[in-house]
Write a structure and sequence with these properties.
Mean pLDDT: 88
Structural class: alpha+beta
Number of helices: 5
Strand content: 5-15%
Strand order of the largest sheet: 1-2
CATH superfamily: FAS1 domain
Largest sheet: 2 strands, antiparallel
Number of domains: 1
Low-confidence stretches: none
Number of strands: 4
Order of helices and strands: HHEHHHEEE
Helix content: 25-40%
CATH topology: FAS1 domain
Length: 95
């Protein structure tokens, strides 16, 4: 990723060894910003991003942000549901 606003997600992907999952040609990533990671750190009462990235469920969190389907913005309708690589369903709610 070239945008530094997503550097924590990139670090998390590298730390978990999930780079191959992210590089799939026919996948869509829902990448949280660094601000989202900072807010999560605070919500969980953690003192550092390093502590956040050391959480046991980091791989699952990353896999829940990947859908093995190439999606374009115009393909996403209101309230559409997708299965993530982790096997959980997410609903995208369009405003």
């Amino acid at each position: 990723m070239e945008d530094s606003n997503f550097s924590i997600f990139e670090e998390a992907v590298q730390k978990t060894g999930l780079s191959e999952n992210v590089k799939k040609d026919k996948s869509t990533l829902f990448v949280p910003t660094n601000e989202a990671f900072e807010n999560l750190k605070i919500s969980l009462g953690l003192s550092s991003i390093e502590e956040l990235l050391a959480q046991e469920n980091l791989s699952e969190v990353i896999l829940n942000h990947i859908v093995y389907e190439k999606l374009l913005l115009e393909d996403i309708d209101k309230n559409i549901e997708f299965e993530t690589v982790a096997g959980d369903n997410i609903v995208l709610i369009s405003c």
